[in-house]
Amino acid sequence: MRFHAQYVWLDGNIVKWEDAKIHVLTHALHYGTSIFEGIRAYWTGRNLLIFRLEDHVERMFKSAKILGAKIPYTADEVRRAVIETLRANDFREDVYIRPIAFVSTPTVTLDVRTLDVSLAVIAFPFGKYLPPQGIRAAVVSWRRVHNTMLPVMAKIGGIYVNSVLALVEARSKGFDEALLMDASGYIVEGSGENIFIARGGKLYTPPTHASILEGITRDTVIKLAADWGMTVQEKPITREEVYTADEVFLVGTAAEITPVVEVDGRPIGDGKPGPTTKKLAELYAKVVRGEVERYVKWVTPVYST
Fold it and tell me: Are 205 and 172 part of one and the same domain?
């Protein structure tokens, strides 16, 4: 996977990749005071389509509001910055886009309300984040941060240390991904994904008040499943329910829809991606490429045709 491009958008200007630099005393580097999004754009052979750009930018501004930092651009300016970055790099392949607003004042004070905020947009070629044929996951010892401790609904950089620790533990034990429990012992998330399980012909996913990120891919899957005629219920999910589920899958911008075929050494279902997971993954792949008329409003073309 090549994490490189020619150009980056930084504080209103397109700059060369190697010139996108910040000071070592930048507040966000020391305290995790950044707000970011992960967005994908898909190359169709004719155009590059950004998936749910407006929703991602809207969530970014909500995250900044929760942190107490002010992004010095409008939502429309951020959307245009994303498109400008992709055009400057002239991508003709699937890419990952990382808009990031970060408290950039060189200082050690903690109060962010009067500090400067910078904005950057980085994009680079990106394929599959996790093996699409299915992954092995482990329930780790680290618990998902509770929303009374940190605002987990926001994509704030510092919160992701929780995810880093969880994934390192899982990978060190030979697994592909981590599953985190909350303080009450319910399974709530992967290290960077929301979780769904299928049991008895129904889909279940943890509710948004259960210390999870309000994922945009999660919202997409709920809408696709409902339109497909499948019941989706938000409820707490126990470890035992995961072990005995017919299917388990993780969803996220990077992960897309990834089957989980084993948890803690126990096969899920018959140990292969299940029919619901495969159906949703196939539908999702068409939707993000603008091939389903009902959801074409979710994609933003980059190039004029």
Answer: yes
